[in-house]
Amino acid sequence: MIRLSTSDPAFDRDFTALVNARREVDADVARDVRTIVASVRDEGDAALAAFTQKFDGHDLHATGWRIENSEWIAAYEALAPDLRAALDLAAARIAAYHEKQKPADSDTTDSAGVRLGARWNAIEAAGIYIPGGRAAYPSSVLMNAIPARVAGVERLVMVTPTPKGEINPLVLAAAHIAGVDEVWRVGGAQAVAALAYGTQRIGAVDVITGPGNAWVAEAKRQLYGLVGIDMVAGPSEIVVVADGKNDPAWIAADLLSQSEHDPTSQSILFTDDAAFADAVAEAVDLQIGLLSTAKTARESWDTNGAIIVTATLEEAIPLVDRLAPEHLELACDDPQTLFDRVRHAGSVFLGRHTPEAIGDYVAGPNHVLPTGRRARFASGLSVLDFMKRTSFLQLDPASLAAIGPAAVALAETEGLPAHAKSVALRL
Amino acid sequence: MIRLSTSDPAFDRDFTALVNARREVDADVARDVRTIVASVRDEGDAALAAFTQKFDGHDLHATGWRIENSEWIAAYEALAPDLRAALDLAAARIAAYHEKQKPADSDTTDSAGVRLGARWNAIEAAGIYIPGGRAAYPSSVLMNAIPARVAGVERLVMVTPTPKGEINPLVLAAAHIAGVDEVWRVGGAQAVAALAYGTQRIGAVDVITGPGNAWVAEAKRQLYGLVGIDMVAGPSEIVVVADGKNDPAWIAADLLSQSEHDPTSQSILFTDDAAFADAVAEAVDLQIGLLSTAKTARESWDTNGAIIVTATLEEAIPLVDRLAPEHLELACDDPQTLFDRVRHAGSVFLGRHTPEAIGDYVAGPNHVLPTGRRARFASGLSVLDFMKRTSFLQLDPASLAAIGPAAVALAETEGLPAHAKSVALRL
């Protein structure tokens, strides 16, 4: 963890280094992924089975390729009542939030008599990637599948690696709740390629979303354009802006809730109170050893954590904008005033009683958010990622007479005579 | 040009081949682009000057790096009155259409007492790529720059190669009309890299849009994630669905308006009238030789053109959906009935008096549209490409008590104790 203060003479240099530090793994996976993707494109299921044997250690022909709906229902019915209620509550709230994202069509006729508008349609098929093993999160199933379902996607396909054939029943239960249509026991770059190209068994999809390791992320990046993808995702991060009136233990827990995800995760505290900064640092040290995730959390906090003391909370906001964090907590008396001045953040959590983790699970907004400063230009996952817009025009002889001559003039000056002629013939 | 009929026994096979035919150049540009991008990242303006000398044949230090505002104004003032009026009309109509795309923020408190919503902000800086030389189109400047301006982007940077130092004054005039802030004399993959990383002279941007050759497209694809991009673009295409009551010359001109763009462009006619199909084919042959773009148009039409006879116009619609064309004309008495059944198309032109070219210039909707079957999942360029959404949440002790326990249960089952603790401490 580094400590900075805006009053340090070297602050600008040190903060710029923090902003520019790359936490993303630069492993040379691109070449391996190209090979895997080409194999699946050319050989389909045979390649998929071979890579699954190699990387996940099981024989798809023995374990079965697809996990049947009856297994998901069984997993759902076997849930402890409080967990079932929690997943049902989360699903209902996520659906309600995303329902409001559905865009409106437009269809108007302007003063020149030109009818013009736009119509939104759902994509036909979406694929969601859900990691297996340690990071098999039912919340990821809900967050990726429900926006697709709300958008109106007809075919919702989930792929998930099942190392040695094993799968987390909570993930299956979440697939059942979220209304997934197919679940396939495949993962890695090979599963992403199968979704993009289609194989003998797995039908191709139009959009692929969902979290994954560096191979999965690189496969999505390489296949972007053949299919739509959600985003290029990196390690998760939180920035907390807190005054000295917070309980240090609460803020320490918030910081650790990102640190425990991955050694590359980042947690940053801005505060205007140096004594509070000390108290939070102590509370982190106290809590961290008690976590079952202590090893990961400690590596992340030691390597990427930061506490920055500012003269005022307001002074933190332009610095936050430079970080453009995935998650931003504003833990102070009047968070709205600060929030009004924030421009770049994936999701913002206002006030002392809004820990970031509430947004990871049950609040409603999506937890798939832009990382690595991408909140400067990207948004969290939404219904729009599973829809597309068709614009349309309709002119009649009068409206074409009104605006057509301008089109002819421009087409001629651009050296496109057939463009000009197609309008001029109708004038 | 190929002729197909849905009554042919081999139609399914032949049409599937047409759908799957790749018209995109498979040149191995990726490696060259990686080299260029890395050079500009590491060496900045020195690399930019060297590549410009090599590819565009001029010395940036001699010609100047930047084209000053006074030159754009001079270009605008030197426009012939009808051209100036045409560009002004186009700009006003494009701005009016895109103004309606601005998304609404949301901010509500639900029955559990949870405040939740989303706020849209413009990105700070956008870069638009405008090709130089033969395909230097002022309409591209308007179509890329105006949505950015409407979104509220503060800094709008245009890059355009000026082969041997020359630039099309119409492009400069369009930059002036569209409210561009900076114009730089650089192009190719090196210009895209300069926009993404920034150099000593050119400040980095957040989103890069605009048409370009295979090198430009590949550079955008490689830099996607560091910056936002509009889309992976391929050769343009038109599908016309027309009954036998159309003037064959009009429909021929519409088909040729795509063919003349590039040898890889594609024009396809669906009609329920075999005699009309013959008449259009003849009209194409008659018109094509008269075009100044004859060579390109003929190569495109001969290689990629198609005329498909169907039993009814309705029969064409599912076939159109499989093609998911960039442009779709519905030239018949009741285009709305057909349009209601279309799902995948970038932009649709309804009725006999709506040639596609009217949408290229002055109608208002954007002419930057998904190609190569990407209308299955992608949309045309819009204000949304220059904005991003921040979700937000605010809970109080009562609302956290209502939904917090479910978050604790889910965090615990996912093995994330700090997530659970950050909520539980506040309950």
From TrEMBL, chains A, B:
Q: Where does Zn(2+) bind?
A: 258, 261, 360, 419
User: Could you tell me what the cofactor note in this record states?
Assistant: Binds 1 zinc ion per subunit.
The UniProt record lists the keyword NAD: yes
Q: What gene is behind this protein?
A: hisD
Per the UniProt record, the source organism is Sphingomonas populi
NCBIfam families named among the record's database cross-references: hisD
Q: Record's HAMAP family?
A: HisD (MF_01024)
Q: Which SUPFAM superfamilies match?
A: ALDH-like
Reaction(s) this enzyme catalyzes, per UniProt? L-histidinol + 2 NAD(+) + H2O = L-histidine + 2 NADH + 3 H(+)
Enumerate the Gene Ontology biological process terms. L-histidine biosynthetic process
UniProt-recorded Gene Ontology molecular function terms? histidinol dehydrogenase activity; NAD binding; zinc ion binding
Q: Where is the active site?
A: 326 (proton acceptor), 327 (proton acceptor)
The cofactors required by this protein are: Zn(2+)
Task: State which pathway it belongs to.
Answer: Amino-acid biosynthesis; L-histidine biosynthesis; L-histidine from 5-phospho-alpha-D-ribose 1-diphosphate: step 9/9
What this chain does, per the entry, is described as: Catalyzes the sequential NAD-dependent oxidations of L-histidinol to L-histidinaldehyde and then to L-histidine.
Write down what this protein is called: Histidinol dehydrogenase
